[in-house]
Amino acid sequence: MGTFIALLVLGIVFVIFNRYAKPLDALAATLVVSFTVIIYKAPFFQPELLFYEESFILFVLILELLKRPRIAIAAAAGLIGGITHLTKASILPAIVLCLVCLILRAIIQIIDHHKQQKACDKPASPIKPILLTHIYSISVFLVAFLLVIFPYIHTSKERFGSYFYNVNSTFYIWYDSWHEASEGTRIHGDTVGWPDMPEDEIPGFHKYIQEHTPGQIIGRFARGLMILHSAASNSYGYAFFIIMYGTFAALLIFQNKGVLLSRLFNPANAIRLFFIFAYFTGYLLLYAWYTPIASGNRFMLALFLPAMLLLIRILSLAQDHHASVRVFGRTIEARTFSSVILLMLLAYIISVFPLRVSTMYGGN
């Protein structure tokens, strides 16, 4: 079953990559995903692979929804969001962020409409259709999401007193170690109901703030980020390729400012850029904060597919403008980079992969 899920995930990944990038770029990126992540996960029947794929699809749908709100895309995003939440309950921040971005987009549209009215003698286009499109999209997205998860959250409300009860985000995230959590609410029945403990001993945001200094809070984030970096660096090999893609994308943008900056950083992309920044920054900080309780590759891998998509999208945009970079006196064209990646991947498969796949545990 794990192998079947892995093949299904790879097929969907290639289809999405191919939609937003050139075929060779999509193929190279899919092979990188296959040999540096998926093949290690395939022997295990776990929810992680499904979660990575579902959250990736949701990420793409949200970007499409923020580009142009449509009821069909809103319904699909809500449906996938609900399924993803039932797979692993860590998708809620993305759902909230999407709603916030849609509201911000509507506000920006209203402001732009008023500016257009003041600047032009003739009446601007009606604002009502724009507002209705956003209202319908937000409503459909939220209703579809809630309909999918309703049986689960209804049971959660009856049993735990909260629709979105989760021991990790309710209690464990406010402990300083897994030992504290295991000796705290966990042994007081938090998995079968509200923990049977004095109220002042139950962890929470206000209790944590009162008992920790700003230096301790900042230190927890810093240590967590270092742990995540170490987990990724010493993992299956995906970190190396992300660095290669990221470095080349950064060089393309820096050395071709006039061409790429206008395509990437323009007012039409503002909301989507905000979503992307908040998505990656927010989840990195959340994962970093949670490392005293649990850590491992599964946190960073939740961001791997969205990151790969964005990087190969930049690569394909650069090819549209025949962009290149100069490195150590040599010119490397954007269209040749995926060929270089394929050669690197081949070297990895021959020299590193056999030992790594036979000795490294892929179930973490």
What order do the helices and strands follow? HHHHHHHHHHHHHHHEEHH
Q: What gross morphology would you assign?
A: globular
**Tally of strands:** 2
Assign a percent range to the helix content: over 70%
Mean pLDDT reading = 90
Uncertain runs are none
Structural class: mainly alpha
Computed Rg: 23 Å
Straight-line N-to-C gap:
18 Å
Largest sheet features: 2 strands, antiparallel
* Percent in strands: under 5%
- Cross-sheet strand order for the largest sheet: 1-2
The domain tally reads: 2
Count of helical regions: 17
What's this, in brief?
With 364 residues, the chain is an all-alpha fold. The chain is built from 17 helices and two strands.
Please give the structural blueprint.
Elements: H1 2-20, H2 23-41, H3 48-67, H4 71-87, H5 92-119, H6 128-160, H7 167-170, H8 178-182, H9 205-211, H10 214-233, H11 238-255, H12 257-264, H13 270-290, H14 297-301, H15 304-320, E1 324-327, E2 330-333, H16 337-351, H17 353-359
Antiparallel strand pairs: 1-2
